[in-house]
Amino acid sequence: MAMGATLPLSRHLVSLVALLALSQAFSATAQTYTNVTQGTILTPLGSTNSWPSPSGDFAFGFRALDSNASLFLLAIWYNSTSPQAIVWFANGHNPVLAGSKLELTSDGQFFLTDQSGNEVWNPGVSNASYAALLDSGNLILVSSSSSSPLWQSFASPNDTLLPGQTLLPGSSLRSRLTDLDYSEGRFELLDQKDGNLVLYPSAMPAGNLYKAYWATGTVDSGSNSRLVFNESGSLYLALTNGTQMAIFSNGTYSTNDYYQRATLDPDGVFTLYVYPKSASNGQQEWQVAGTTPPNICTAIMNDYGSGACGYNSYCVSNGDSGKPDCLCPPNYSFIDSTRKYLGCMPSFAPQSCERNQTDSFEFQPLAQIDWPLSDYELYTTVDEDQCKEYCLSDCMCAVTIFKNGDCYKKKLPLSNGRKTSSFPGTALIKVAKSNPSTPQPPGSTAAVEKKDRKTLILVGSLLLGSSGLLNMVFLAVISVNALCRYGNRRPIKPESSVPGMNMRVFTYGELEQATNGFSEELGSGSFGRVYRGSLTLDSRTWIAVKKLDRLLHENDKEFMNEVRSIGQTHHKNLVRLLGLCNEGVHRLLVYEYMSNGSLKSFLFASERPHWNRRTKIALGIARGVLYLHEECSAPIIHCDIKPENILLDDNFVARISDFGLAKLLRTDRSHRTNTGIRGTRGYVAPEWFKNAPITAKVDVYSFGVVLLEIICCRKSLERGVGNEVVMVLTYWACDCYREGRLDLLVEKDEEAMADMSVVERFVMVAIWCIQEEPSLRPSMQKVIQMLEGAVAVPAPPDPSSYISSIR
């Protein structure tokens, strides 16, 4: 791990360097720029879809994706290069369509909304007087009351650093998934607070980090160490003691002559790219000027994960550039050639363990190839023919490595594959023979058809010598038999999508395979059981499959109409419906998978969640319910708002699930008969049990109870904690409000105790929501306004009258 020469600095100079790094936000504003004022809007297809920097070197705005020109990325890019390299982006995981807009509002809010008006990105800044793109490529938001930026893109990097940018302790770069997919990828460059700069592979989609594959080795060098890409083009780790450790050993390129960027590429290589500003400095294209690590193929070696390339593939270093290439073994092919990290799969049927197939397979040799961590058996002092024989007679053996008289047997999937010139062994890949005369196994379709044909020919020969009538009968039988066989063999081809919607129709077999036979149950409820699955081998495509039972609508048309209504709802606080299965007796819905589980498990865990996160979740739920009631094309009453039906995505954003399913449930299993006041009175509005009209106000009631649970981090019914008033959360909260003891609701919650004005506001809103009389409950629009503090919350009716009326 040669890091280049170290250059000691004086203490005073070190302090000055650190001060300059910390104050880059202040110095950035001294550069030339053009203010983007309040009220400015950018749209993907509008006359104004980007802002240039004063020099024109950079631009900020909407960029159409190379992989799909109808999708747009909000990004910053080099505007004078070809190609125009993107150096920062806001919505990599969620590109938007035409009709989206970026707005700096009159009150200083700065945010991106999609074509439906849903917020996609927000830097969390208010009161911004103006925005500007500096000549350094740094986008800043500034308040007139402060000389330093409220927010800047340099402080929120994605995969790239630019000259003048510093990666502070605790910050990181994250690679893209592929060159064309801007979602978070498989590698991370982390400036650790212990002073060590480290490259890690990560597990997708959970994001946990595996063992490092490169590091500066500067652990305990000081918590103030930082990665600096200075304005002159030098990239180094500035240690607390004043030492500078160069990251690339290829020297420094002048920023006067070259555009530069340091990018953590999708292949895991941290790469310095340079682009000559004039032809006199060389061909004007992006060139690799330095890579770390020098050879990622051999750098990564982990017990978990696939390595530098995908499973069953192997990595080859591409000469002096240091960039890797991923290849498949003979008779294997990429699962997806556009996403090679998914790995390779055999292009033949693997050897069966149920019958002897040794004559149907052979070996293809690959010199200098190894998968070093996939061994499960070793034979010593053997020759290559014996090694092949041992693997051929073992149905689990897919590859064997023969090296200096040793034979290593390996089974799929293979990980950490690499080609190394110094490796003395040969990989022997077991593949199916391509001999078309290979006998068909007994019971196979081809063998059965061949036998049937022989039988028909024999019978036909006998009948042809008989009467004409028998011949006619024989021909008719053959025709009917052929038609039936054709009908039985024709594959069922389900429609791939619901007309007019971005929703897929699955076969039951596809979902059975995707869920591994419905083996991993996530939960169950009134509507059926939910299972986790994956549509492909890509770990980024987790899904949740809900098996519906006891349906009211058995008619296909009615079922499809109801599901189509659900599928037309799109909001950031709703779980998205991806597809369905409507095959025979099977009715299944396929949703996006929420990695952080339910609100129930989040709230009632051993450790109390942060207060600020809880308030954001409460507002997210309210916005989702408002959308269902008033904003979607066909208004929906959820009828079952409770923590189990509130899921949390990767960023702990609240997402409501199971909306619209009440219409699909059989009448004999509806809430009206299935729910008792004692069992779920914490969520069910009183009108359910009075034969009163059911309106959207039942959801308002349920939201009020969930809001109290979010405030208190306790369940609506907590047995064994005291008398009935204390056991039932709604009773207890009303008593605490009446007696002026709201502190009891958030006891031992220091964050909430420090924010009692918000606690009081939230509790008052909740009490309004759980009024027995539906007409007294506010609309969800009013609820949101009160929660946000946009309107005052009037004192709710006397809680004592409420309690006595429902007891």
UniProtKB/TrEMBL annotation:
Every Protein kinase domain range: 516-791
Domain Bulb-type lectin: 36-154, 158-285
One of the record's GO molecular function terms: carbohydrate binding
InterPro entries cross-referenced by the UniProt entry: Bulb-type_lectin_dom (IPR001480), Bulb-type_lectin_dom_sf (IPR036426), G-type_lectin_kinases/EP1-like (IPR051343), Kinase-like_dom_sf (IPR011009), Pan_app (IPR003609), Prot_kinase_dom (IPR000719), Protein_kinase_ATP_BS (IPR017441), Ser-Thr/Tyr_kinase_cat_dom (IPR001245)
Superkingdom in the source lineage: Eukaryota
Catalytic activity: L-threonyl-[protein] + ATP = O-phospho-L-threonyl-[protein] + ADP + H(+); L-seryl-[protein] + ATP = O-phospho-L-seryl-[protein] + ADP + H(+)
Residues annotated as binding ATP: K547
Entry's Gene Ontology BP terms: response to other organism
Record membrane topology: Single-pass type I membrane protein
SUPFAM superfamilies cross-referenced by the UniProt entry: alpha-D-mannose-specific plant lectins (SSF51110), Protein kinase-like (PK-like) (SSF56112)
GO cellular component: membrane
The keyword Mitochondrion appears for this protein: no
Residue ranges of every copy of the Apple domain listed in the record: 353-433
Family as reported in the entry's similarity comment: Belongs to the protein kinase superfamily. Ser/Thr protein kinase family.
Identification of the protein by name: Receptor-like serine/threonine-protein kinase
